[in-house]
């Protein structure tokens, strides 16, 4: 706050305090002739009169005490413009102290999970509960309260994983984030016809209905450009984060126009790193929760409890 604004605020506060004190004194002083008028002279409905009686002395004195208290409060705490107050209190300092105390309590509650394996944490009911609450506060904004995701945000409750679904792979994702890198390939496909051909071929890989002539022509284009990341069979590459194109899971949608859009403009979804946000142990807890909600689907799909499933798109 500038010096000018500080002086302005101080003058406003002082005027309010002095005005309240003066108004209290002026309205409670005795009349000059020593006699109080019985009524104000206001009459309603013929016989309802407004009386003019002085306030009790105890009430007036209590009001004066509140004015003195207000002055003392403004000296002790900040409230007069840029004056910091003699106590040195600030809202930021209060927040930092409260946060420090809360962090200490959380650290004590979470300390027994330090360095513990994700699958081991997932067997602890209390730990999974901790992870669920952290997920709700931090991850649900993108992945949904139930973890089922949305367009552009992966479903975390199935057995399909773009970067791998093992406990350590999930932990790595939570700690360090993921950055998708599907480049724009419209020019590499030779224009509109080539884009349509490869889009139709990608549809055919997952069993979707596609134009057979376009799909047949797109096979060679896919092998020459897309197979470098997605593999010759289109099953993807977890090390690169290249999705499996042969299953029925689509992150952005599997219709013809959406696939064309991905080929033309690329995809650059980002999962932010949560180590700076949550720290190591809380990241482990939320990773264990995520692994736990997808474990049933993983086992149902035939994968082992420690191995990742297929890829998410």
Summarize the structure.
The protein has helices at residues 3-28, 57-76, 91-110, 118-121, 125-138, 140-143, 167-176, 192-205, 212-230, 256-265, 275-300; strands at residues 39-44, 48-51, 178-179, 270-271. By secondary structure, it is mainly alpha-helical. The chain crosses the membrane at residues 6-26, 58-76.
Key features?
313 residues, mainly alpha, Cytochrome Bc1 Complex, Chain D, domain 2, two-stranded antiparallel ribbon, two-stranded antiparallel sheet, 53% helix, disordered C terminus
Q: What do these coordinates show?
A:
This is Cbb3-type cytochrome c oxidase subunit. This protein is mainly alpha-helical. It folds into three domains: 3-76, no CATH class; 102-179 and 272-300, Orthogonal Bundle (Cytochrome Bc1 Complex, Chain D, domain 2); 192-268, Cytochrome c-like domain (Cytochrome Bc1 Complex, Chain D, domain 2). It is built from eleven helices and four strands. Strands 1-2 form a two-stranded antiparallel sheet. Strands 3-4 form a two-stranded antiparallel sheet. β1 (39-44) and β2 (48-51) form a beta hairpin. α1 (3-28) packs antiparallel against α2, α7 (167-176) runs antiparallel to α11 (275-300) and α8 (192-205) packs across α10. It is elongated, with a radius of gyration of 35 Å. Residues 304-313 have low confidence and may be disordered.
